[in-house]
């Protein structure tokens, strides 16, 4: 784990905290030489990073900080101990996290997920607009209650894997919530799922740790009427191409992750158009978007719901 701090006074406290908690073997604390770069990738060399977290300066000026403090109806439970660089930044939190966004455009998949806290719900909406302007469609937002304080967080990625936890209402890419739930028959669900998907070119895996959850992948639309007509034409012309998803494991038999990657016979990861999980609890079936194209997921989930829904 890497931690950065540009303020010398705060850096000294962070160093003491890490040492007193015996975490020097786990946390690599660095002080960037310049405050102009918020994500100093030179500090972690050629390594790729799983995620980045940021607690930005919320306020654009000390006047804004004082106004926010005066507007509170109840006194704070504790004194504010943040330094100037931790509390105030020209342009406020949106401008600060906007710098991280700009730097992420260069780093891209060297970091799996970029994330930051926000102090205002309105800032979340503005920042998601900035993500959309940059063409970033894989993002999520959430709301947190920290005692009496409410905070929000936004995360974005240049990869195709979706976050596990559903996002904040109204903050879904393309307006797609990524989760569909409906009522099914209370028995034979496994046979029902397998029967529906067996001819659709899907790789379907039962997760070992959760026996009533299946993970599936597909390269493209194989279920719509237009896709079926195209497949019939290709077959007639001798051009039919199967999905050729043959394994969810690497060549050494080691499972990659909870939602496995797909590899061909040469051990190369292949393109996935969309990945999903299907979960069954009693008579409820839930389909969750896990990776890839959101519009493809929406079409697929609608098809499954139409085929398997029980009128109640």
UniProtKB/TrEMBL annotation:
Gene Ontology BP annotations: rRNA base methylation
Pfam short name (any one): Methyltransf_10
Methyltransferase is among the record's keywords: yes
Keywords assigned by UniProt, alphabetized: Methyltransferase, Transferase
Gene Ontology MF annotations: methyltransferase activity
GO cellular component: nucleus
Protein's name according to its UniProt entry: Similar to Putative methyltransferase-like protein C27D7.08c acc. no. O42662
């Amino acid at each position: 784990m890497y931690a950065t701090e540009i303020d010398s006074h705060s850096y000294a406290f962070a160093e003491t905290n890490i040492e007193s908690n015996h975490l020097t073997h786990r946390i690599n604390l660095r002080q960037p030489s310049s405050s102009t770069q918020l994500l100093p990738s030179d500090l972690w060399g050629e390594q790729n990073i799983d995620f980045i977290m940021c607690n930005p300066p919320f306020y654009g000026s000390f006047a804004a900080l004082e106004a926010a403090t005066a507007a509170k109806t109840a006194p704070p439970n504790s004194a504010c101990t943040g330094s100037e660089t931790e509390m105030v930044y020209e342009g406020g939190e949106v401008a600060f996290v906007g710098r991280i966004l700009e730097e992420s455009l260069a780093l891209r998949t060297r970091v799996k997920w970029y994330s930051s806290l926000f102090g205002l719900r309105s800032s979340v909406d503005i920042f998601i607009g900035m993500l959309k302007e940059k063409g970033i469609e894989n993002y999520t937002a959430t709301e947190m209650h920290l005692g009496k304080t409410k905070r929000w967080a936004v995360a974005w990625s240049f990869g195709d894997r979706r976050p596990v936890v559903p996002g904040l209402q109204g903050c879904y890419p393309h307006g797609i919530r990524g989760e569909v739930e409906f009522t099914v028959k209370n028995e034979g669900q496994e046979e029902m799922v397998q029967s529906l998907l067996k001819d659709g070119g899907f790789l379907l895996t039962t997760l070992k740790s959760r026996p009533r959850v299946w993970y599936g992948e597909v390269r493209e639309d194989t279920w719509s009427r237009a896709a079926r007509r195209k497949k019939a034409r290709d077959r007639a012309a001798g051009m039919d191409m199967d999905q050729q998803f043959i394994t969810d494991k690497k060549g050494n038999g080691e499972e990659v992750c909870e939602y496995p990657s797909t590899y061909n016979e040469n051990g190369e990861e292949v393109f996935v158009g969309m990945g999903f999980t299907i979960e069954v609890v009693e008579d409820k079936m839930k389909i969750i978007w896990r990776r890839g194209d959101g519009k493809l997921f929406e079409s697929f989930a609608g098809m499954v719901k139409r085929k398997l829904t029980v009128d109640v």
